[in-house]
Each structure stands twice: as structure tokens, then as C-alpha cells.
Request: fold
Amino acid sequence: MALIDTTPQWQALAAHWQRMAQVHMRDLFAREPDRAKRMSADAAGLHLDYAKHIATDETLKLLLELARAAEVEGWRERMFAGEHINSTEDRAVLHVALRNRSNRPILVDGADVMPEVNGVLNRMRDFSNRVRAGDWQGFTGRPINDVVNIGIGGSNLGPKMVCTALTPYQSEAPRPHFVSNVDGTHLAETLKGLDPSTTLFIVASKTFTTQETMTNARSARQWLVDGLGSDAAVRNHFVAVSTNAEKVTEFGIDTENMFGFWDWVGGRYSLWSAIGLPIALAVGFERFEELLAGAHEMDEHFRTAPLEQNLPVLLGMLGVWYIDFAGAATHAILPYDQYLEHFPAYFQQGDMESNGKHVTRDGARVPYHTGPVVWGQPGTDGQHAFYQLIHQGTELIPSDFIAPAKSHNPMGDHHAKLLANCFAQTEALMRGRTLEEARDGMLAAGLDSAEADRLAPQRQFDGNRPSSTILMEQVTPRTLGALIALYEHKIFTQGIVWGINSFDQWGVELGKQLAGVILGEIEDGKPGADHDSSTAGLLEWYLARR
Ligand code: G6Q
Reply:
């Protein structure tokens, strides 16, 4: 496979950037009255405005030529067709099958996976209905009031983010809680105030071997058994979500209380599978199905829309533009909706674990940049914190602004103010403030001209800072599903262009191995001989004081 940066399409973009680096978006807007109209698109209930980018029609044309040169369309088909595109693990990548509401057969190694997918969904429906109706009872015959999901990474961040995002749809019970960190504080603080007789634990782990999760699960089990005075209580209070039936049984959970999924579901793409059980329990199965339906609508858009109107492709390629040609190293996700507070952290994992790779699928080291550092926080908090650097720092930080037209909590003019801030930020980032504007403003405010001259450089903003704005009518299960799928396919598009495997995570596996070695040494009370002096010193310091 030729490296993408050796293609004429890449080189054309490199040359194009040399010209575009001299262009200011302000001038593009002045020249093109219909710019916003041309550079916006709708799909699956989402409205994307991508006019505030350092990009012309020519830029987009070149970017899409690059996408075609990388065979984004062909790889997209391979993914939907169940080919083993996760080549290092020899697996298909089929989170799209989990939300395939059309039920179109999707084949993995010749067999249609849809009957199994629907089978697990039916079990999730039955189970969540029973728990929500109070028909599933705890050991002492009481209904379940609290659900504690024990999982980490992909087995935690998705359901946690969605449960928070869909808080307005939650019933009074059961309330969802999430424990992920192996730090005992996380479990201890979560269990404070919970009653074992009305608490259900979901042990969520694809492998059922993850140290943090199994440690938390064992301690939770102890808490339950101590609280209810019988090992037999586990049956009413523990269910598992996993692909590993053997380990689930070994832990003491009957496979009757296990919800399965498949190796073709990556952890960070798994909230659509039984890993989404806390979501179904919190908001009801119908709402969970609406989430799937929203994602499916975006899948269909991604699968069928021409690249020119394809939202995930446009976002993905604009990302490539800044990362590989304009020198951007990070990307901010800025939701203007409090319920989306975990959305940036969710896609920090989604993006960085998928595209934080330095070799191609063939093992060649890439000479260009791949996934950016992804970060963010809900507006308007960020405005009073880190936006300063986005406006006036020396880094170029493309940002996504995400906002709903309607709040779930209409309250005076709060929402109007929230959205006014959102739009004003994107405008200011794009337009900036010239030296003259800064100076004139100060003169108008009564400063003398020497003082205005002195302060003008501080109060001048270059502008030309790119952003996309994604709007939806309201954050609903459906629009949220579409929004998540939008980002998933954006990440896919970029991974294909960079020629990397977005679906493995050897860096995560490394962490899992390293901690195991050191834990053994801590248990033995002395550092092993193979450590560097810093690691050995840290271990000794800790061992002397624990
Ligand atoms: C996600 C990663 C990783 C994984 C966790 C938990 O894509 O693989 O975040 O989800 O390490 O793994 P288990 O579900 O196997 O416990």
C-alpha cells in the first residue's frame, strides 16, 4: 500500500495550503454571500454548518479527491459488508449491525448476524421491562432502585455519557451509577447511600478479565453478600455483559443472567450492544431503540450519500486538512448543552484510541500526523477557562460547537443566552478583531490615543480560527444516536485516509500487562530487577510507606 502522502492528491493539498495559509475567512465570507448556504448540510436530524473553515470550494474538492484516492467509499462498503477490516485482530467491525433497524442481512463469515443481534435486543427488552416494572426482584423481594454498572473504558464511557445525556428521559427508578476506576474510592463513594436489597450490579466487560472491573466486581459482590447475608443473593443482584461465558460462570454469575455480544463489536463502539443495558434500564427500552434508530439513520446517510454531502466525510476530511496540512495537533469538542457533559470525554476515547496510531495497516511507520488530541467541556464554562488560548494562543485548534435549539429545562432566557454565547464564539473565532478595530473601540470608550496604541496589540485577535457547528432541535435519544454515529464515521473516514487500523488498541493492552507485573512485585514487597531507577525508586518509596 502506497503511503497516502505520496499521492498526487496529497501533494495537491500541500500546495493548496501554501495558498490558503494567506487567506482569511473574513474575506471568504465577504466574497461569497451564499457561503453558509453552500457550506451547510442536514442529515438524520442534525444541521451541520461548516462555513467557518479555512476552505474554499477548491479545498473541499481536493479533500474529497484525497478521500477517494484513499478509497473511503470502498472501505466503507467493506465495513458494512462484514469484512475483517480490523486486520490486526482479524475481526469484522460491525457496530452498524447492532443498530441495523432495517434488518437487512449483514454477513460475517457467511452467516447473517441479525438474528443474534435481535435475540440479544429482545432479552434486553424483557429484562429492562421487568426491572423497571418492579417484576425483577432483589433477594428480599424488593424492586430494584439503583443500577451500578461496573466496567471501564468502552464498557463504561458510552453508557455513562448516554445516560447523562438522556437524564430528562430517566424514570425515578432505577437510577444509573457508574463505577470504573480501580481506586476503591470510586466504588466506596458510589455505594454510600445505596441499599443492597434494592441494588442491581451490571458487570460489563467484553473480556471479563480486565483488572479494574474484576476487582470492583469482587468488592461489590462482597458488599452485597455482607449486606444481605447470603451468597445466594448474587443471583438476584448481579448480571453480566460479556463475550466470555466461561469467565462469567467462573465469577459466579449464571449465564442465564448474562447478555452477550460479539468480537466484531469494539469496546469503544459497544454502547449499541448489551453494553447499553444501563441505558435501557434508565430510560426504557423504547428510548434505547430510538437511540439505535437515530444512529441507523446516520449510518444510512454515511453509507449512501455522495461524499460532497456526506456529513461524517466532510468533518473527517476537514480534520485531515488541519492536522496534516495546517499543523493542528488538537481538536476541541464544545457542547452547549449540560446534558452532553460527558460527550467530549466519550469521543476523546473514541477518537484517540481509534486513530492514535503510528503505523499503517501494513506496519509501515507513517510520516504524517494521525489522530489529534481530543478534548473539551460544555460551554459556557470553557469560555471562562481555556477559550482564551483558542482565541489568542499560538495553537490552531479546530473546534466543534454542538447545540440544541430547545432546552429540556426552559427557564427564563437561559437558553437564549446559552445559544447567543455559542454563536458569538464561533463568529469571534472566525472574524477576530483587527488592530484598528481594537484601537477604535478603545478611543470610543474614552482612552487616550497613546494608551489605545499601547493596548491595541493585546486586544487584537487574528481570527481565522476554524469551527464547525452542529445543531439539532433537541437532545433526544434519536438525535443523540445520530450525533454519536456522525463522530464514529468521521473517525472511520480519517483512519482510512491515514491508512491505519482504527479498530485495535495495543496501547490499552500494554497498560493491562504492565500493571500486572508491578502488582506482583508490590505483593512480594520488593521491586523486580528489571526496572529503571526511577520506577524502582517510586516502588521503594511506596513500599516503605504503605
Ligand atoms: C475500547 C478498549 C477499552 C476497553 C476496556 C475494557 O475500545 O478496548 O477501552 O473497552 O479496556 O475492556 P473490557 O470490556 O474487556 O473489560
